[in-house]
Structure formats: C-alpha cells, structure tokens
From TrEMBL:
The lineage of its organism: Bacteria, Bacillati, Actinomycetota, Actinomycetes, Pseudonocardiales. The chain crosses the membrane at residues 20-38, 44-64. InterPro entries: Restrct_endonuc-II-like (IPR011335), Restrct_endonuc_IV_Mrr (IPR007560), tRNA_endonuc-like_dom_sf (IPR011856), Type_IV_Methyl-Rstrct_Enzyme (IPR052906). It comes from the Bacteria. Residues 85-197 form the Restriction endonuclease type IV Mrr domain. GO terms for molecular function: endonuclease activity. Keywords: Endonuclease, Hydrolase, Membrane, Nuclease, Transmembrane, Transmembrane helix. This is Restriction endonuclease. It comes from Saccharothrix lopnurensis.
C-alpha cells in the first residue's frame, strides 16, 4: 500500500471579534496628536485654525458670487427671445415656465410629455385663473397651422379646464390658425409677441384681461 497522503489543515478564519479595530485606533491616535500639537504650539495652532477658517469663508463667498452671477446671467438670457434659438423642446418648456413665474404666475409646472393631451406648462394666473400653455419650438420658416390650434382647442378648456389657454411659438402662425384661435378663444403668442413678453415680463393674458 502506498503512503497515506497528508492533508494540510485549513487555516482557521478569523472571527469578526478577533479583528483589530483599526479605524477607532487611528482616530484616537489622530485626536491625541492633535491635542498634543495644540498644547505644545498654541500660537501656531491658532494661526492654522484661523487660516483654515479664512480659506473656508473665502471659498463660500466665491461660490455664492458664482451662483449669483449664474442667476443674473440666466435672467438676462430669459429676457431675450434669441436665447431660445437652438433650444430643445424640453428646454423651451422650462424657459416658458420661468417666463410665467416672472409674470406673476404661481404654481407653475412643466407637464409636457407623453400623454400630456396638448398641455406643456400649467400655472395659476394673478387673477386666479388656470393657465394652460402649449409650447412649439419651431424654426422661423415652420409656421403653426390651424390643425394644431384645433387640436389644442379640443382639450384646453374641457380636459385641462383652462381659463387662459395659450399657444406660444418661436415661429409664427398661419392666417387660418389665427382665425380658428379667435373663434375658440385661444391666445396665440408668436416670436414677436414672445420677444415683447420676455422683455417686459407682462404676459399677454394680463394685457387681454386688463
């Protein structure tokens, strides 16, 4: 018979309780070193702490200034209809929502998307009426036709219960579209009207109801 093959004993896995708690030890050592340094060099420690505080305050001030500059820049861009050039449809909806807020509307919400039934932005006007906006980010040569106005008229008041239904576009409207809108009571805002609205902050619905 051949010699029996010896089997190596598997090393025992260390139990969780046998592990050395390195993190608490490291923290404790760091605290002790810091305490010793403060006791040994009080003036230097105070200087380092003051410098750290000054750096922290400076960073905070710079961030606040940068944020304020971004807000000011965004506000300036929102006053120019040219800033909508090249926007996506979703960006244009957000731009329109900011314009409504600047005009005194509250409860402004972007709701555009699948199944929106023609509403992209909804809000409450200063007079308490419900504003429902359909946004069309079109190129200048792509006019909004009467079919779009007819579809929106079918949902704006009866489905969305709009008191102030609007269609806003970066382009313009065809003659038949304006005729349909006048008959069904929908406010149309083309690029020229949008530019005036953005500059003044006065919504067409406020002008119409004045």
């Amino acid at each position: 018979m051949g010699a029996k093959r010896r089997t190596r004993a598997k090393p025992k896995a260390k139990r969780r309780g046998d592990r050395v708690p390195l993190v608490p030890i490291a923290v404790g050592v760091a605290v002790l070193l810091l305490w010793w340094f403060v006791q040994a060099y009080p003036v230097l420690s105070a200087g380092i702490a003051g410098a750290g505080l000054a750096v922290g305050v400076a960073v905070l001030v710079l961030r606040l200034r940068r944020r304020r500059a971004e807000v000011v820049l965004q506000a300036e861009l929102d006053r120019a209809v040219e800033s909508t050039d090249g926007m996506s449809g979703a960006d244009f909806e957000q731009w329109t929502a900011r314009l409504l807020r600047r005009s005194g509307c509250v409860d402004v919400e972007v709701v555009g998307g699948s199944g929106d039934a023609g509403a992209d932005v909804v809000a409450t006007a200063p007079d308490g009426g419900r504003v429902v906006v359909q946004c069309k980010r079109y190129s200048p040569t792509n006019k909004v036709g009467s079919e779009a106005v007819q579809r929106f008229s079918g949902t704006a008041r009866y489905y969305h219960r709009a008191d102030h239904p609007l269609i806003v576009t970066t382009s313009t409207f065809t003659g038949p579209a304006r005729s349909v809108a006048a008959q069904v009571g929908i406010t149309l805002v083309d690029r020229q009207g949008l530019a005036a609205w953005a500059r003044s902050g006065v919504a067409p619905i406020l002008v119409d109801s004045a």
